[in-house]
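Dear colleagues,

For the upcoming journal club I promised to circulate an example of a predicted protein-ligand complex. I picked one with aspartic acid because it came up in last month's discussion. The inputs are reproduced below in full, followed by the predicted structure.
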Amino acid sequence: MKGSSSILLIYTGGTIGMRQDPIDGTLKPFDFSQILEEVPELGKFAVRIDSHTFDPLIDSSDVEPSLWQSIANLIKDRYDEYDGFVVLHGTDTMAYSASALSFMLENLSKPVIFTGSQLPIGVPRTDGKENLISSVEIASTKDKTGHPRVPEVSVLFDSRLMRGNRSTKMNSENFNAFASPNHPLLAEAGINIRYNDSFIRKPESWNEPLQTSVSLDTRVSILKIHPGITPQVVRNILCGSETRAVILETYGSGNAPSKGWFLNIVAEASKMGKILVNVTQCLSGTVNMDLYATGKALENEGVVSGLDITTEGALSKLFYLMGKSGDNEWVKARLGENLRGEISK
Ligand code: ASP
């Protein structure tokens, strides 16, 4: 397709490009060329749209960090050819992938928009067309100075553009499947697309070349605290030799049981040099370990505050930072820094 702007559509799989298997009735991915046939509206944009299809196409429940590395490498290889990138991705792990790419793409100065759909694009009531069309429009939009209007990794869903590392899947069946509870929307598509320019991150320099950081250290576990949790479970996860870092999903503003056995295991893991990060189970709000004695006790044992980061953001930030350095103290110090707009600071 011809036009003054150019977009690379990167198709990884997900419901948006699935169709029903006539034999067992389950949804399975189909060839990408058929997606373009399904959305002739794309031809009306003054945008050249090229596509890249991953093989195999996957349900995003099968996403592994190797896919993030492939997407990052692809964007780096084709960076100078395109004004923006739209990544078609399953919704189940889209927030993880968008978060990861936000860290892995350093000095990003072009839009990378993740989108997908709840209903396959061939279904009459699909949300996939609108999501795809709005993504292409936003990814090709420039500001008055000629720079891309949204030069960051984002998620477009149900007319709402969110920062990728602030997004989370919060509904398994409604079209408004994603939320950005701790950060305002970057843009909203109505009759016009309204951009919240003051909340959109701009690169420090438009001229810095894109760098990718594809070495990821995945030795991270997530422990969701719950009433009735046992010392055995807590010790296995916090002190296990497989983990270098553990995300503690705590109650409210960062609170966990104040029982002696619990704090002793946290202290033991800390002494072993583990990176322990406190992230709230609440959909929105921040960790503040100074508020309650139960939170303060974690802080005293060396647990680092994740502030208002999402679990998806914390996981991928850890993968990224730990891939860069074997020094856990360096990683802990960086966790408190706002690297890509993932925390409010
Ligand atoms: N299971 C699908 C996936 O994440 C769901 C979706 O795309 O909405 O690939």
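Two points we might discuss: Residues 134 and 343 are 26 Å apart (CA to CA). The first strand starts at residue 5 and ends at 13.

See you all on Thursday,
B. R.
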